[in-house]
Amino acid sequence: MDFALTPETEDLRRRIRAFVSDHVLPVESDPASFDAHEMISEKALASLRAKAKGEGLWALQLPQARGGGGLSVTAMAACYEEMGRSPFGPLVFNSAAPDDGNMMLLERVLPEGMKDRWLQPIADGKVRSAFVMTEPMPGAGSDPSAMLTTAEKKGGAWVVNGRKWFITGAEGAKHFILIARTSGDARKGLTAFLYHADDPGWHIVRRIPIMGPEEHGGHCELAFDGLEIPDSQRLLGVGDGLKVTQIRLGAARLTHCMRWLGMAKRALEIASEYVKERESFGVKLAGHEGVQWLMGEAAANIQTGRLLVMHAAWKLDQGDFARQEVSLAKIQVAAALHHAVDTAIQLCGAKGYSKDMLLEWMYRYARQARLVDGASEVHKMVLARGLLDRGQDFWSW
Ligand SMILES: Cc1cc2nc3c(=O)[nH]c(=O)nc-3n(C[C@H](O)[C@H](O)[C@H](O)COP(=O)(O)OP(=O)(O)OC[C@H]3O[C@@H](n4cnc5c(N)ncnc54)[C@H](O)[C@@H]3O)c2cc1C
């Protein structure tokens, strides 16, 4: 078993690390770089994006023909972790959610002839996108089969009615991927579509206030009252909505984990600086065994997550859906992120709890990790089902 990165991936990883250190961290350390929603301001982002593009560090997850780097999923794991060291990093390299997952999905399922219109502008960073699935009660959340938003075929178009919420980036996005119910069939009842923000028949009801910092465009509630989508903007076949969701979320959940690992490592980096400097009871904090145990435990959780991410990435590279492996990685990394940031705050004392440090930003952000793209309990359910169905084969390599 060879865990070494290829020389090309290692070179890219180092270049991203250097870019983040030299260009992104200085911007992040300036409070004026944050917008009203605690994310990088558009102005600061534009200048960093131009630099990243200039250095060939742009949308690396996409094929070279689309202006990307054609990375394998395992190579992405190494590179995204470096980007995730700063909360600004993934956006700077056009590898942030939800665009990143949406682009990988469109690259995979769109006919070539439609990619210039729907994918390329996102790949170029000219427009943003959103993935529209979750609904208010009693609609789809953890259970997509509860979906209430309907798309009804009328002539050559689909007419959409219903409500969605927590749609990341909806305010300001131009390209939307929508999942709606097209029949009552239990397995083939959902279908995926593309629509444009300028299409009439839908609107944003509100930007939902959340506890953490917000991605650009917030997390919005949407209402659909007669949006018409031409049949040509359907993704895959009628009834393939769950398949589209599975294709998107498989990779997108894992790229969340890759970025979160970078953030978890950063939390320990910040704590390390503090405990090496600060003294108590005659020694540096780093010299206390109790402190070492806290740091060692957080590091062990992170490394377990890294191995699970690499395994799932390797499976995805083999063409497997890696459902079980992605669920394992998502459960572990979401918990490891929260634990690492919590540990770092503890080790930095009152300063860690203050807004003088990035840790409190991370702490509020990290809480969503156990909810988004499937709650940890639902991923555990997936594992349990696999275990019950496949018995000893669940553990196969
Ligand atoms: C910051 C943020 C961004 C998001 N962005 C998007 C987006 O861009 N697009 C989008 O479509 N959605 C988005 N979501 C929604 C997200 O995907 C859902 O929150 C998630 O799927 C869970 O659905 P729910 O919130 O309706 O929880 P519910 O389904 O109401 O579940 C609530 C809780 O019940 C428990 N639970 C549920 N089912 C089971 C089970 N089978 N076994 C054990 N326990 C269970 C879990 O603890 C779960 O957290 C976002 C959410 C957040 C917080």
Please write out the topology.
Blueprint: H1 7-28, H2 42-54, H3 73-83, H4 89-92, H5 99-109, H6 112-118, H7 120-123, E1 129-132, E2 150-154, E3 157-168, E4 175-181, E5 190-196, E6 202-207, E7 219-230, E8 234-235, H8 241-277, E9 279-280, E10 283-284, H9 289-317, H10 323-353, H11 359-366, H12 376-390
Parallel strand pairs: 1-4
Antiparallel strand pairs: 2-3, 3-7, 4-5, 5-8, 6-7, 9-10
Helix pairs in contact: 1-3, 3-8, 3-9, 5-8, 8-9, 8-10, 9-10, 10-11, 10-12
Flavin-adenine dinucleotide binds at residues 98, 131-134, 141-142, 166-168, 210, 219, 368, 371-375, 377-378, 381.
Keywords:
397 residues; alpha+beta; Butyryl-Coa Dehydrogenase, subunit A, domain 1; Butyryl-CoA Dehydrogenase, subunit A, domain 2; Butyryl-CoA Dehydrogenase, subunit A, domain 3; four-stranded mixed β-sheet; four-stranded antiparallel β-sheet; 12 helices; globular; binds flavin-adenine dinucleotide
Named CATH architecture of the largest domain: Up-down Bundle
Q: What value does the average pLDDT take? A: 97
Q: How many discrete structural domains?
A: 3
Arrangement of strands in the largest sheet: 1-4-5-8
